[in-house]
Amino acid sequence: MTNSTRTEAGVLDLLRQFKSTPCAADHYASERLAQAKAIEPVLKAFEVLPTDTTRKPGPLSGIPVAIKDIIATTDMPTTNGSPIYRDHVPAADAWVVERLRNLGATIFGKTVSTEFAWRHPGPTTNPWNSKHTPGGSSSGSAAAVAAGLVPLALGTQTLGSIIRPAAFNGVVGFKPSYGAIPRSGVHPLSGSLDHVGFFARKVDDVAFALSLLAGTSASDLHGQPVPAFEVSVTQGIQPSPAPRIAAVHFAKFAKAESEQQQMFGASITRLRSAGAVIDDLELTELDHVNWDTINTILACEAAVIFGDLVARHPEKSSEHLKLLVKAGYDYSAADYLKAKAQQQALRDAFTAQMASYDAVLTLPATGEAPEGLDFTGDAAFCAPWTLMGVPAVALPAGFGRNGLPLGLQVVGPYRQDFHTLRVAKWIETTLAFQIGLPKLVA
To answer: Cα–Cα distance between 271 and 269 in angstroms, integer?
Structure first.
């Protein structure tokens, strides 16, 4: 495996190579570190790079994993994307980081997050074009995987912070079902909406990550463990048989760029030719109420979390965060309780609506990553699925007019993560789209 091939390799690709060539595992993380240092002046994906890449024993031995910088690490700062926490080193690892260490992974630094995973962006650029955003809030994690610096990175999603940047950077993003991975040690934004998930290069890799990292923690009372499953390092997961898919457009589909709409239609045609049954499904109630509902919940919970912090550090808090706190205080308790009831009602209704289907196919974003670094993109295509806490997968599937990636989003019923991943694997295999490497590293 050449250096270029290793840059494009996924987690399972590497583990198979490491088994046959153990010396390759000894040097892989240090090779990635050298490459990261070379391109970091342009990419700006990391708050902190690792100082120790020594290989540890375990199922993830030799695999470097980048950690979003709202997830606590004891051996390096966790800044939460805020000057308030610039020199903060936590006393304990986050649950998911401790699990990764126990599995033998190399904790490969901290990746740039927007401020507290909200809207104020960091300096990270899109590796396909440094004038464009990588998306957010998991900006650095998505860019680091796209650039081949790591084969796996942790992200979080409260609106669209895994799926949208995955699409913008041309990688696989996976937001598991709500509660599948404990959030202990992850700075909260909205306890009813926060999810921990992954960026990788292939569906097999995010499935493997979930199989190892799903669990429960007494300190995360919202945990809802998904049914356990195993992933073969040799074969990955088996694709589902040709699935029955619901194509969901939503009213906002008309706002998508023409190339994104065309790619979506062409993908449906190819999938149907390969045997999938694809019907259009209208989710009218979800389409109409999800945005107000999710923003009510988010603002109310964020106001409780950040209200005192903003009051104590106004000069170190962005206008985005101040406005979020104000919005939360402007809602009444009745508004919040109504939104929470609507959240559960929509999840229950979606479960019933999906009785005849294996998964939803929809858009992850309006199109290519927007130009400029001040706006991380519209989360409207991701918000419904985050609100309901259902599993969602972003798959790279094409390029837009400016040569930046376009994606698809595959969504499944609540807690049916493994089946959703099998459908995503079938779509990935059927479309056989090879994204390649961005010019920054190609």
So the answer is: 6
In angstroms, the CA 77 to CA 220 distance is 22
C-alpha 338/C-alpha 216 separation (Å) is: 28
Nearest by Cα to 3 from 43, 46, 26, 35: 35
Is 80 in contact with 70 (CB distance < 8 Å)?
yes
Q: Which two tokens stand for residue 374?
A: 């001040």
Look at residue 366 in the predicted model and tell me its pLDDT.
98
Q: 3-state DSSP call for residue 74?
A: coil
Query: Can you spell out the DSSP letters for 85-147?
Result: GTT---SS--HHHHHHHHTT-EEEEEE--SGGGSSS--S--BTTBTTB---SSSHHHHHHHHT
Amino acid 225: pLDDT: 87
Start-end of H helices in 21-60: 22-43
CB atoms within 10 A of CB 2: 7
Dump pLDDT digits (tens) for 385-420.
999 999 999 999 999 999 999 999 999 999 999 999
Regions of the chain short of the pLDDT cut 70: 1-5, 442
- Say how many residues make up the chain: 442
CB contact set of 436 (below 8 Å; sequence gap of 6+)? 8, 442
What is residue 371's DSSP assignment?
Answer: B
Looking only at the bridges linking them, the beta strands covering 277-280 and 244-247 are parallel
| Tokens standing for residue 396 | 């790279």
* Side chain identity at residue 42, one-letter code: V
> What domains sit in the chain, N to C, each tagged with a CATH number?
3-282+352-431 (3.90.1300.10)
The pLDDT tens digits for 342-390 are 999 999 999 999 999 999 999 999 999 999 999 999 999 999 999 999 9
Residue-by-residue DSSP string for 393-412 = EEEEEEE-TTS-EEEEEEE-
